[in-house]
Amino acid sequence: MQLHEYTEDALLQLAGSTIYDRGYDYYLNVMVYSLNYNVDTDSIQAEVEENYDDYEVGISMRDDQLAASCTCPYEGWPCKHIVATLLTFLQHKAKYVRRAQKMNKTISSLEKKVKALSKDELVTILLACAKNYPDVKRDLTVRLESNKMTTFTTLKKQVACAFPSIESRNYSPSNIAKQLRSLIKATASSSPEMQIKVYWVITDRILQELNNYGMDEDVLENVAIEAMESLVELFSETEQFQEGKTDIIKQLLSYYHQGNFGITDWVYDTVVGLCSQESDYRIVIQSLEQKAKHTSCGSYYQELIAGLYGAIGNTEAQRKMLEQNLRSGMDYWRLAEYWLDQKNEDKALEVASDGLEKGEGRKIELYDFVQQYYKKQGDYARIFDLLQQKITKQELDNRNHFIHDSTYQCLWEYCSDQGDYQGLQTLLEIRLTNNDMDADFYKQSEEILDENDWQTFEPRIIQNLQERIQQQQRNRTPYLWNVPYAANDAEILAEIFAYKQDSENLFETIRHDIRLLRQYESQLLAEYTVEYLEQYRHVINRLISARGRDNYKTAAGYARTIKHIYKTIQKTPEEWTRYITGLRSEHKRLRALKEEFADL
Q1: Domain coordinates in residue numbering, the chain
Q2: Considering only CA atoms, which of 165, 178, 256, 160 is closest in space to residue 211?
Q3: How many angstroms separate the CA atoms of 587 and 536, rounded?
Q4: How many angstroms separate the CA atoms of 599 and 552, rounded?
Q5: Tens digits of per-residue pLDDT, 109-139?
Q6: What's the pTM?
Q7: Which of 224, 320, 329, 581 fits a disulfide with 363 by CB distance 3.0 to 4.6 angstroms?
């Protein structure tokens, strides 16, 4: 498939209605400009106008799939700018295809004519272009490098000129990025030495801009990242410029420690990527050690420094660094990982077990390692102990929800596979004792337990939930009639009674919760019509008193149920007429209410 065969329906399906509509608005308002279609590569390049900046869009087809990019900061895909660009192309594709074909013919004809020119004629034309077009002059200068110092000075000035004052009305990150990318492209054919110098000047200037103003500009960050990646690649291919590399590492570390921008991790990764000799790593280690002395994030820097010692093969220094100031669970886990790398699983287990007792904060990795160790040993008694430790220290993987805890699930799977009834009963008891219940737990318990055990276990579930509901009602702030509260024990108990088809207890559980009354209306309405009438009429009055169309619309929904009760269930249509007439008369000045109640 080619781009001109793509359809608007396919674009709508890809983007979704919200992004598609936004892109369509941009298309209608002619926000897309400089759109160029390349027939040979079946690709589109365009720019899209925005209030504060313009964005570059690139679109192509790869293996019959749309591939597109945009320099805007939107994290989703595709963005409205991509949609607007593709819509612009699809609406006028015949024009863009003809223009591209005409351009190809022009270039083909020009190529023949240029090839027929003599060397002197070509020189004359090339020099004239260099005189009239600065970019041509720059590209020639870079390619020829007749004077490396002069060439670099010129390029350095162009980098500086790409950055107007941030207070200037002409300040545009996209325009800056475009100029810098042009310089990178022009330098691509030059010597490695020139490329390194230019890429570093660009990186340095962008990081300076971002750091000085605490900026978070994706278009500039992307250029800096590309330049840093190129630097790492160039230095990895040659060791001729070690002195220059050392200076770059030190300056990058300076920016990293200032950290007033959003790509500090990229900067650090670049620093490490540039390290190829022990002396490089020593520079980084020394810098991090100095920083660690003056910060509260010592544990973070210890991890980095330990990793650097590991990179140069100094495992003794790596271990000592990891053993310093063991405080958090992650501190212990990093030390356990060290021993695993040294093929000493017993020592790793010792450290991990120590971390479970003494560590603070996150311990998921520690628990998982110890659990897997015991699982390999087939020691499920120890895994039961591990679960009890989690419960005692309140360190389940997901707060108090056993169903999402890896240790609980490991034991449940084991007991199920082994047909261990006693073990499953113990696990169910643990959840009940720790108040981790829902309707699925009720059904699971009913399925697992034998009749005698279920007869004693089931009332405990109900009683536990009822006691907790009473406690919640005592502690809760006054009931907000129009604000449904989050899932709670009343909701769980209601689901259980609904499952049991126990309408009496179901209604008693939810009679003061309008949201749950609405939810179980189909099951309870016929039996509790009087109670529903009382509650719904009360809610309608409160909604109307609150004012607003949304409240009136909600009230109309309750009114439809009241209408159904009077006319269909109680067979008293005159009562409905009396009720709705009185309601409309009482609020006759509320036009929005009148509109929402019009079809009742």
Answers
A1: 3-113, 123-273, 525-600
A2: 256
A3: 17
A4: 13
A5: 888 888 888 888 888 887 888 778 777 776 7
A6: 0.71
A7: 329
